[in-house]
Amino acid sequence: MYASLMLLVVTIISLVGSKAFSRASGLLFLILIVSSISIPLSSFLVMPFNKVNRSGGDITYTGISLESLQENFWPHFTSGAAGSSNPLRKETVASVFGVFFPATAGIFAGASMSGDLKNPSVSIPRGTLGGMGLTFFTYVAVIFAMAATVTRNTLYTDISVMQDVCLRKASSDLRLICRLTLF
Hints:
Strand order of the largest sheet: 1-2
């Protein structure tokens, strides 16, 4: 339901035009930043728990644990992990990079709005490098927060573990934001 609602909102914004997108982008950016920051923040605020997820698998959230970080630190590529692009073939560095790269390179789309800038030749490089730096730092914080707090088995079997961990005891509004942006 959340995904369908978000798809409808994005479709309406696209049909209205680029000015509507420019106006909505600030709010969308704020929602994305709040949800992204809530993941590493949750690692400090959420107490350890075990529960059964929607698909019947176990979620083991250890809280910040050196043992969990050591278990998850080095890659252990496997086949059949939840969310795998090809469940019959073992994942590789290239397939993992294929997920990470588009997420960080999406910042280049902002350069297409350079007509709104007073000094594009200065603002575009600064904005692009600043955006890439912020995105990289945020993703590294999320990766290390998840690696230090969730068991490897949970990461293999539950693609929505971030939604389940995201400030479990937070207000319903913040949890809704986490679910909307992490779907």
